[in-house]
Specification:
Helix content: 25-40%
Number of helices: 2
InterPro entries: P-loop_NTPase (IPR027417)
Shape: globular
Distance between the termini: 26 Å
Number of domains: 1
Strand order of the largest sheet: 1-2
C-alpha cells in the first residue's frame, strides 16, 4: 500500500478523521505495527503519522 493511501486512511486528505481509524505499517524486520492516534482536533495526530511513514515533518 502506498504512503498516500495510508495517509488517506488516517484522515490526512479526508475532511475529517474518525477516532477509530488505524494504520498498519510494516517495518523492515517484517513485523506489522498497528497505530491508533487519538486526540482532539489540531493536536498533531496526522503530523506524527506522516513523520512515522515518511521521516519528514509536515510544513505549514
Amino acid at each position: 500500500m502506498s504512503v498516500e493511501r495510508k495517509l488517506d486512511r488516517v484522515g490526512h486528505r479526508s475532511p475529517r478523521a474518525r477516532p477509530d481509524t488505524h494504520l498498519r505499517h510494516a517495518h523492515s524486520s517484517g513485523k506489522e505495527v498497528n497505530i491508533l492516534a487519538l486526540g482532539h482536533r489540531g493536536v498533531g495526530k496526522t503530523a506524527l503519522t506522516v513523520r512515522y511513514l515518511t521521516k519528514r515533518f509536515i510544513s505549514d
